[in-house]
Every structure is written in structure tokens, then in C-alpha cells.
Specification:
Elements lengths: L3 E4 L4 E4 L8 H10 L2 H17 L7 H16 L15
Antiparallel strand pairs: 1-2
Length: 90
């Protein structure tokens, strides 16, 4: 049976993650309050940020930026897309 949580990103009860997807205290907070669906939305947002801003995960500053953006995306309404971004037509 799926683990149900109250997802604070989607503001509804939804299926929770199967295991923590990020280490530490932040990872536990994500595990406790972010649904699978919301996490998938973050992964798409993260991919877009990496591509549009030409980030590399080897760079500690880029990783720190992604963590900040992840927190904004998952826990507030303060997340934005890069200026000039147009989503692909699928």
C-alpha cells in the first residue's frame, strides 16, 4: 500500500515518496511533505534550470544554486523560470 502524505507543494493528499531522495534534514523534510507527483515536477524544473543556465553539478556554486531553487520550488511560491525561457512544444 502506498504511503499517503499531505503534499505541501500540491496542497492535497497524495502518494508520498518511497524513500528520501535527498540527504540530511532537508531530505527528511522533502520525504515527509512532498509527494511523488510534486517531486517529478521538481525534476523537470531542475532539468530546465540546468539546461537554461548551463549549470554543471561539478561546480559547488551551481549545486548550491540548485538547492536554493529546489527549496523555493517545493516549499514556497517564489520559484521562477529563467528570463526568456520558452517551453518545448511536445
Amino acid at each position: 500500500m502506498a504511503r499517503m502524505i499531505n503534499c505541501i507543494k500540491l496542497n492535497k493528499e497524495a502518494e508520498g515518496l518511497e524513500r528520501p531522495t535527498y540527504p540530511g534534514e532537508l531530505g527528511q523534510q522533502i520525504f515527509d511533505s512532498i509527494s511523488k507527483e510534486a517531486w517529478q515536477l521538481w525534476l523537470k524544473q531542475q532539468t530546465m534550470l540546468i539546461n537554461e543556465r548551463r549549470l554543471t553539478l561539478v561546480n559547488p556554486e551551481h549545486r548550491a544554486l540548485l538547492v536554493k531553487e529546489m527549496e523555493k520550488f517545493l516549499f514556497s511560491d517564489d520559484s521562477t523560470t529563467p528570463e526568456g525561457y520558452t517551453p518545448p512544444n511536445n
